[in-house]
Amino acid sequence: MTVPFQKYHGTGNDFLIIHADEYVPDRGALAERACDRDTGVGADGILYLALEPKFNPPRVVMTLVQPDGSVAPMCGNGARCAAEWAMDRTGTDSVMIDTQAGTLRADRTDDGDITIEMGTATFDPEKIPVDADNQVFEEEIEGLEVTMVNTGVPHAVAFVDDVDDVDLEAIAPPIRYADVFPKGTNVSIASPNGSGGFHQRTYERGVEAETESCGTGAVAIAVVARRLGRTDSDPVEVSPPGGVLRVSFNERGNATLTGPVEHEFDGEVAVESPIEP
After folding, report:
1. Active-site hit among 16, 95, 189, 214
2. Which HAMAP family would you find in this protein's record (predicted)?
3. Summary mean pLDDT of the chain
4. Which residues of 228-265 are buried (b: 16+ CB within 10 A; e: fewer)?
5. Do residues 155 and 229 share a domain?
6. Is 200 labelled a binding residue?
7. Is residue 130 part of a domain?
């Protein structure tokens, strides 16, 4: 048995999109197989989307299953891909995305990019979560000086001289699995680009590797940089390996994430039926 999918990516952060009505007996197992870049289709996760076009703007219910089989409450680039998918099917330029981290609005810009609201970032240790009595700003954890923030998912953000000089695959896992993070954390590093923006690299929880782009990570870098006085730009340009993202802030200090989305191709993926007792 197979189910159809559409492959989308936002600045290299790529996802298989499967309609939530499709019968998938084990979503976690399918993600582990299909996301594998050697033996599967290859992706940073599977987005299960349910479209509710009767609303104005249309609504999309989004569930992200990551390559390790876990479910992530939020994904900035994934939500932008979900928005493009929904806009393609409804002929609209605005949609609402229901995620486990809240309901967010997405809009198509005049140049064709997708902008999504990212809610309110928090430095509250209980909401990140991190085992700390106070907010964590530039404190050493497993050898790296990090600031902790939750932008829908937790991020440990560190500023370095040059992101290309860092062995991220070596330094990130000890932080990602540090005892102070009861639910783990993403690890994002940033270096200034000379014009108020930053170069970005992110090791993603659930992918368990560096990705070409991370939307929540880009927002985390921009939020932390502004909080620490490292930039006063708006928008803040953040450049992961896969492209350029722009993080803006409204009058309440909430962030939006803007960047391109591309529909790569369509296909079908095999679904294993559960073994009968």
Report:
1. 214
2. DAP_epimerase
3. 95
4. eebbebebbbbbbbbbbbbbbbeeeeebbbbbbbeeee
5. yes
6. no
7. no
